[in-house]
DNA sequence: AAGTGGTCTAGACCACCCA
DNA sequence: GGGTGGTCTAGACCACTTC
């Protein structure tokens, strides 16, 4: 039997006269049920028919609310059984072979970084999604740097890391040593795998000034999400703008798979 | 007005008597509309009320189907306006140890090539060097093509092949089938390995016209040298200009080699 | 004004799970 | 068998965009 407190709690967060759509109010009310611990992990929320009756709405409206929480990964429906609160764990299997990085092909050159800013902030919706952070759940560390090769700027990089996983790096001096190195040393995070996309874009005015190039000059935009060994979720999302006039990617093609 | 072909196409992929839920059939039918290029990017799919009438289902059922495609990022709804096919960047893998390519990850898209020219000519010094041809020793085949995805041009490609190794392909129709396929069939050349570089540049006037983009738009320039199993020298050098607004590279990062 | 997607109803029957 | 979620109907009114 469900605790008696669920129904009063839900109704307290619902106002049918409000301009806010009912399904959104219901979604947030049910979310509160979980966040406040009124319904614990592995337990069920009330049946859809009960919710519909309590709120005085149709079952379809309840489903619209609950299904969104299911898609967010907060709830799990089991056919014929009920709707359960999930353990807070997100899946993220990584596979595929191959490696690569933006630091390759710079061998023999002198490199350094300049820190532009390192702040703890609230993630935007996009960043929260990339890091698989529940919206508003927590803070992220935002690190903005310029990387130099032989004294000229080569890339502008903005990294985002979940605060609660990576806060020890806040004490690091990233001017002289690498982010990944410090993540391993101070936060115990060793990067394991990830995914990146590479796009061709032109420099906007901000990047043009930072990279000392004209606006409109071609650049690479590299967006990478990295996973650490220790945790089953992303620990870094980084966007890197790289000068197209000073950098190229090199790829060795090997054997099979060629039509 | 929508092409007449949408309705017949959709109904062909729908069977109300099937045990498969209607909304799933509708979802896949609409997906087919996009993948087959019957509805192109930036265009709208038919209104929900039309779809409901055509399929003989209620509008809620149509919405259940369409909303899933919206969540997948394939469609975008604009209130009061319509449901639009999103402008998606195509992607190509970039395995460090394996295939590459601009031809993968185009699954479900209609692709074809247009031959601009196929001539036997004397190699320039640069091309001769790439193909490891003694200067003036022999001739090369120069093949220039535009590649299309869903009717819009995606890349402009110029391939160079040593004449004495590859002349059988001169009889091939490269409009319909791949260069590598024909090299294998008619010249007995199977591509084995190679090396490619990827640069970010902007379109010049020639490429802008061929790719139907403005001059100055960002592009990738991919330069690749390929070796065949049978011979110990390059058999193809190809330069490919790829539209940056329609294409991105995707790379899976795996384990080691991370600084 | 006409057409679009957004929200919502009050039911219905089904397949599935558990006691 | 009784309760659960899965699918589906045939409407309705609203808010928004476009013309």
UniProtKB/TrEMBL annotation, chains A, B:
<dbReference type="GO" id="GO:0003700">
    <property type="term" value="F:DNA-binding transcription factor activity"/>
</dbReference>
<keyword id="KW-0238">DNA-binding</keyword>
<dbReference type="GO" id="GO:0045892">
    <property type="term" value="P:negative regulation of DNA-templated transcription"/>
</dbReference>
<protein>
    <submittedName>
        <fullName>GntR family transcriptional regulator</fullName>
    </submittedName>
</protein>
<dbReference type="Pfam" id="PF00392">
    <property type="entry name" value="GntR"/>
</dbReference>
<dbReference type="InterPro" id="IPR011663">
    <property type="entry name" value="UTRA"/>
</dbReference>
<dbReference type="GO" id="GO:0003677">
    <property type="term" value="F:DNA binding"/>
</dbReference>
<feature type="domain" description="HTH gntR-type">
    <location>
        <begin position="20"/>
        <end position="88"/>
    </location>
</feature>
<dbReference type="InterPro" id="IPR036390">
    <property type="entry name" value="WH_DNA-bd_sf"/>
</dbReference>
<keyword id="KW-0804">Transcription</keyword>
<dbReference type="Pfam" id="PF07702">
    <property type="entry name" value="UTRA"/>
</dbReference>
<dbReference type="InterPro" id="IPR000524">
    <property type="entry name" value="Tscrpt_reg_HTH_GntR"/>
</dbReference>
<dbReference type="InterPro" id="IPR050679">
    <property type="entry name" value="Bact_HTH_transcr_reg"/>
</dbReference>
<keyword id="KW-0805">Transcription regulation</keyword>
<dbReference type="InterPro" id="IPR036388">
    <property type="entry name" value="WH-like_DNA-bd_sf"/>
</dbReference>
<dbReference type="InterPro" id="IPR028978">
    <property type="entry name" value="Chorismate_lyase_/UTRA_dom_sf"/>
</dbReference>
């Amino acid at each position: 039997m469900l605790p008696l407190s669920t129904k009063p709690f839900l109704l307290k967060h619902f106002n049918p006269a409000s301009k806010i759509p009912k399904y959104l109010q219901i979604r947030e009310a049910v979310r509160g049920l979980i966040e406040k611990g009124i319904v614990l992990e592995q337990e069920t929320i009330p049946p859809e028919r009960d919710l519909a009756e309590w709120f005085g709405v149709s079952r379809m409206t309840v489903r619209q609310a609950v299904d969104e929480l299911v898609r967010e990964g907060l709830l799990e429906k089991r056919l014929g059984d009920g709707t359960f609160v999930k353990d807070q764990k997100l899946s993220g299997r990584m596979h595929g072979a191959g490696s690569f990085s933006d630091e390759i092909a710079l061998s023999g050159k002198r490199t350094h970084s300049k820190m532009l800013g390192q702040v703890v902030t609230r993630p935007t919706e996009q960043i929260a999604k990339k890091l698989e952070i529940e919206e508003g759940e927590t803070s992220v560390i935002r690190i903005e740097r310029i990387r130099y090769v032989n004294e000229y700027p080569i890339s502008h990089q903005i990294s985002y890391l979940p605060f609660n996983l990576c806060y020890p790096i806040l004490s690091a001096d990233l001017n002289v040593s690498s982010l990944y190195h410090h993540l391993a040393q101070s936060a115990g995070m060793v990067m394991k795998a990830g995914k990146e996309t590479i796009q061709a874009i032109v420099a906007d005015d901000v990047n043009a000034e930072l990279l000392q190039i004209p606006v409109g000059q071609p650049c690479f935009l590299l967006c990478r999400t990295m996973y650490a060994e220790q945790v089953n979720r992303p620990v870094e999302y980084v966007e890197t703008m790289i000068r197209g006039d000073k950098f190229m990617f090199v790829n060795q093609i090997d054997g099979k798979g060629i039509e």
